[in-house]
Design goal:
Elements lengths: L1 H36 L2 H18 L4 H4 L5 H19 L4 H8 L1
Length: 102
């Protein structure tokens, strides 16, 4: 009976050790991924800013040429979507929603 108990305890210890090993490997991979992706948006924004400045030297507005939507326009679109959803939640739809908005 004691041998079975010792064997079970050894198995549990082995499982716990493997779980710790897997957790450490997972933490390492997460850190590697975070290091690889940190700043990638800033790099792209910086490259776009440099390209935009270069285009302006030739009289080209890169934002207009690429039909880029500004951040403020995008956020106002989200606000408009929220307004529409709130009207719907209040039961105001269709022509009535248009009348209320007007």
């Amino acid at each position: 009976d004691l041998n079975a108990l010792a064997s079970a305890q050894a198995s549990i210890d082995a499982i716990n050790a493997k779980e710790i090993e897997l957790k450490n490997n997972r933490d390492i991979r997460i850190a590697e991924l975070n290091n690889a992706t940190t700043g990638s948006g800033q790099v792209a924004e910086s490259a776009y800013s440099r390209a935009s400045a270069a285009a302006k030297l030739f009289g080209v507005d890169l934002d207009v040429s690429l039909n880029k939507v500004s951040k403020s326009f995008s956020s106002s679109g989200n606000e408009l979507e929220g307004f529409k959803n709130r009207l719907s939640e209040a039961g105001i739809t269709g022509m009535q929603a248009g009348d209320v908005t007007y």
